[in-house]
Specification:
Layout: H1 2-18, H2 23-26, E1 29-33, E2 41-43, E3 53-61, E4 70-75, E5 83-86, E6 92-94, E7 97-99, E8 112-120, E9 125-130, E10 133-139, E11 151-154, E12 174-181, H3 187-193, E13 209-211, H4 213-216, E14 225-229, H5 232-347, H6 356-360
Antiparallel strand pairs: 1-12, 1-14, 2-11, 3-8, 3-12, 4-5, 4-11, 5-6, 6-7, 8-9, 9-10, 12-13
Helix pairs in contact: 1-5
Length: 384
């Protein structure tokens, strides 16, 4: 729906920019057909896209009191009455077969109504709709397709291939939004199309809208066929204005909600900013503490290096002391050897020759007392 309203908005823009006669506005115009058998539109389109299925729809306003007012006629090389649709249901034709549908065409003269005919060779069924409601359905011959090479005629009937217009079958009414779709529309789709003649819902089915109303308005006309405004542009504007007002109110509510959310977000951001500042201060303090710790670590490292150096010096001193100790021990060993040698020499002393007093005053033992047990003096000299 929004896409359709946007299309209407663009149309209104062209209306203001270019004036009432602009090409964009023409699709909102209707056609009024005169009351003679020379008042019609006829042309020969390529009907092959409609060969196996189609849907014909138009808004119709019955104004003529003719017996058989035909608003849509298609003749082909197969039959001159391939399709014939009247605004009162009398002498309705499909593939040359006539039906009398006057009992279901109960629309009062002068009233707009939406008339559709849909058909598919696959279902072998043709269906007639009035204002979105199925009013008649009938079977069609198996294998039958739409005849080609024919003429479309709006406003009268054909008794031959593009000929045989009849004064008793003059349409003489008004027509709006005649479109032919290249597929069999569903009932729900036709109901949607029939909701409002001033809503541009046909644009929704653009991919299958083969014969278009705006193109029909460009065709050459025969006799008294006039184009006029049916006030749908004003209705479209009112609908658009109502929709835009509703959307504006909805947008206003959303905007108010957004403003409130923005205020809450601003408060949250302010609180977050305060916490962030506190965090920055704490980080600065932590950085200061870390710097102090690093300084202390550097000092400790310096002291450790000094201790290691002192330890190395101590090791050197220890090695020097150990070397001196070894030398002292070696001297002591030498003295011990000398002592032992001297003691052995004492054992050889002849008491008759040398007295023990002489021995004690000898240079090796002067001031010393012998405690050796390695020898013993006998006789009257001395004992150890």
């Amino acid at each position: 729906m929004n896409q359709i309203l946007c299309g209407l908005l663009l149309t209104l823009f062209f209306y203001v920019a270019n004036g009432e006669g602009s090409a964009e506005l023409r699709r909102f115009n209707m056609l009024k057909f005169g009351n003679t058998d020379q008042d019609y539109i006829m042309y020969q389109p390529n009907m092959s896209p409609l060969a196996s299925e189609f849907t014909v729809c138009a808004w119709i306003r019955r104004l003529n009191s003719a017996t058989r007012p035909v608003w849509f006629s298609y003749s082909s090389s197969v039959t001159s009455k391939e399709i014939q649709i009247t605004d009162d249901g009398y002498q309705f034709y499909m593939f040359g077969t006539e039906s009398d549908l006057r009992s279901v065409y109960t629309i009062s003269p002068g009233t707009w109504f939406y008339n559709c005919l849909s058909w598919s060779s696959a279902t072998q069924t043709r269906t007639v709709y009035i204002n979105g409601r199925v009013v008649d359905s009938a079977s069609t011959p198996a294998g039958r397709t739409l005849g080609q090479g024919g003429y479309l005629l709006f406003g009268n009937e054909q008794d031959g291939l593009g000929t045989g217009m009849d004064g008793g079958e003059i349409f003489g009414g008004e027509m709006y939004k005649l479109n032919v779709f290249s597929r069999m529309l569903t009932t729900s789709e036709i109901q949607e199309l029939a909701q409002n003649m001033c809503v541009d819902i046909e644009q929704k089915y653009e991919s299958t809208r083969y014969i278009k109303w705006e193109d029909i308005l460009q065709l050459s006309r025969n006799g008294d066929v006039t184009e006029k405004d049916n006030s749908c542009l004003l209705e479209a504007y009112k609908l658009l204005n109502s929709e835009l007002t509703e959307r504006l109110n909805h947008t206003r509510l959303e905007l108010n909600t957004t403003v409130e959310e923005l205020a809450r977000t601003r408060e949250s951001l302010h609180s977050t900013e305060e916490r962030l500042n506190e965090t920055v201060i704490a980080l600065d303090r932590s950085e200061t503490g870390l710097n102090k710790t690093l300084i202390a670590l550097n000092r400790s490292e310096t002291r450790l290096n000094e201790t290691l150096e002192e330890l190395e010096r101590t090791k050197v001193t220890h090695r020097e002391t150990e070397a001196r100790l070894n030398e002292t021990l070696e001297i002591a060993d030498n003295l011990e050897e000398k002592l032992n040698s001297t003691l052995e020499s004492k054992c050889l002393l002849n008491s008759s020759i040398t007295s023990h007093w002489d021995f004690l005053y000898a240079s090796p033992f002067y001031g010393e007392v012998s405690h050796s047990k390695s020898c013993r003096l006998y006789g009257d000299h001395w004992k150890s």
